[in-house]
Design goal:
The chain is an alpha/beta fold. It has helices at residues 10-19, 25-35, 55-67, 177-183, 204-207, 214-228, 241-252, 254-259, 283-301, 304-313, 315-326, 334-345, 349-355, 389-398, 414-417, 419-437, 444-448; strands at residues 77-82, 88-94, 141-143, 162-166, 188-192, 234-239, 261-267, 376-381, 403-407. Helix 14 links the parallel strand 8 and strand 9.
């Protein structure tokens, strides 16, 4: 036992919780908070004394950000698209590049999800939002892949690119806040919430007894593209589970990648071998965690009310685990950390349990062949515990023409932690996509990032 009275072997505590879900359900509920970020974060070896460090700062950040903050308030033109099983997927068309330009303020009469951030019409600027100090970050370690010549600059009448963003596990489309703010002028953007996430409907097939799968998410993305972008060149941007979704679509519809996909960005994701991820644990602890985590997740998924109550009353505890698995550096602004916490808290524990088993079955190494020759960015943080950088390196090795970018000291939510680097690299792949598809030129704001 440690001085605080907590077992020095947190992995054993997870196993004990899994073995007696009824007797120790409150303890399991606490462990389940970290599972909301993926797996049992209580086994991450976070020192107990850190729970009190900076508590007043975190509380002050929550109060200030909850009162008025731009994060998550950017809205587009809402639509719903039926998935193949009928599940209603929530989609937003954003940007002023559409034939009928989308307003760049929150939609009137479109109430945000409870607990999310919003502002009144007119209070959200079009340009980058967030705290000024956030943009001061380190450079990136870059390996530029071989680049193919795609011809002369496109004529003004060339078709515009449409950029489609796919978010990750336990998040929503609002996780792309900084990239959305950057690209809204003169671009066509599509954001959507994965089934059971954000404002999308709970998966009908799962409620009917069918297990969730990454293949299902790939089919969902295909339905979104068919409904809102049936023609023209597209760039697919996926983070974590969203990157897996892009790979699943590539396996299902390789002809789409030959004919219309002009660029791909895979951020903090993996193509296979999820079970090798240690979450920063020693090898023995990681093996034990892999054995007990599925059972713990299933048990917690049956205790929704209890776990959600634990989340509400244990905000300081959950904040530590969220930060541990979301960010790599210690200089993350408290407001950004709070925003990430709100995104993760918005995903119910039963949705966490719904998708967690799907990652072990994910193997899309063969599907990467569909991306060969397509301008591709593979980006990850060097301190990503959930999809470690070696998985991005493996994807880039399978795609010799890809640009591999490793962001020093960044974690899993690299697009929130180091948006200036992600934005610049995304602009670079968009430039390559314009040349590849002979599409309309990028807007000045995007081109300036490359100067």
């Amino acid at each position: 036992m440690t001085e605080s009275g907590v077992s020095s072997n947190p992995v054993a505590a997870v196993a004990k919780a899994a073995g007696s879900a009824s007797a120790g359900v409150s303890r399991a509920g606490l462990i389940g908070i970290s599972l909301g970020v993926v797996a049992a974060g209580a086994a991450a070896g976070v020192a107990i004394e850190r729970l009190t460090v900076g508590r007043s700062m975190r509380r002050r950040a929550r109060e200030e950000l909850d009162a008025a903050a731009p994060f998550g308030s950017l809205r587009g033109r809402p639509r719903t698209v039926p998935a193949p099983d009928g599940t209603e997927l929530y989609v937003e068309l954003d940007g002023t590049g559409w034939p009928e330009p989308v307003q760049v303020h929150p939609e009137e009469g479109h109430a945000p999800r409870k607990g999310w951030f919003t502002r009144r019409r007119g209070e959200v600027p079009v340009d980058r939002t967030g705290l000024p100090g956030l943009l001061a970050g380190s450079g990136a370690l870059t390996r530029a892949g071989s680049r193919k010549s795609f011809g002369t600059a496109p004529a003004p009448a060339a078709p515009p690119l449409t950029v489609v963003f796919c978010h990750g596990y336990c998040l929503s489309q609002d996780s792309w806040h900084f990239q959305r703010a950057l690209l809204r002028e003169d671009m066509r953007l599509v954001f959507w919430d994965q089934r059971s996430h954000g404002r999308s409907e709970r998966s009908r097939s799962y409620l009917a007894g069918e297990p969730a799968s990454i293949d299902q998410l790939g089919a969902d993305l295909g339905a979104v593209l068919d409904a809102v972008v049936p023609q023209g060149p597209i760039v697919l941007v996926g983070h974590s589970m969203g990157g897996m979704t892009v790979m699943a679509l590539a396996e299902q519809r390789p002809e789409l990648f030959r004919e219309r996909v002009a660029g791909v960005a895979l951020v903090g994701t993996l193509a296979d071998d999820w079970d090798s991820v240690t979450l920063g644990l020693p090898a023995v602890g990681a093996r034990l965690l892999r054995r007990v985590a599925p059972g713990v997740v299933r048990a917690l998924g049956r205790q929704v009310e209890l776990v959600e109550a634990t989340r509400r009353f244990g905000a300081d505890v959950t904040g530590v685990f969220y930060r541990r698995f979301s960010f790599g550096g210690k200089d993350v602004d408290p407001s950004v950390a709070r925003f990430a916490e709100q995104l993760l808290d918005a995903t119910p524990i039963d949705v966490v349990a719904e998708f967690y088993p799907a990652f072990s079955a994910h193997d899309k190494r063969a599907a990467l062949a569909a991306l060969d020759g397509v301008p591709t960015l593979v980006l990850a943080g060097t301190k990503d515990l959930l999809t470690p950088p070696e998985h991005s390196e493996a994807i880039a090795a399978a795609l010799p023409g890809a640009d591999l970018v490793l962001v020093p000291d960044a974690g899993h939510l690299v697009m929130l932690e180091r948006p200036e680097i992600v934005d610049r690299q995304l602009a670079a792949v968009l430039r390559r996509a314009v040349d590849f598809a002979h599409a309309a030129p990028l807007p000045q704001a995007v081109r300036e990032l490359l100067d």
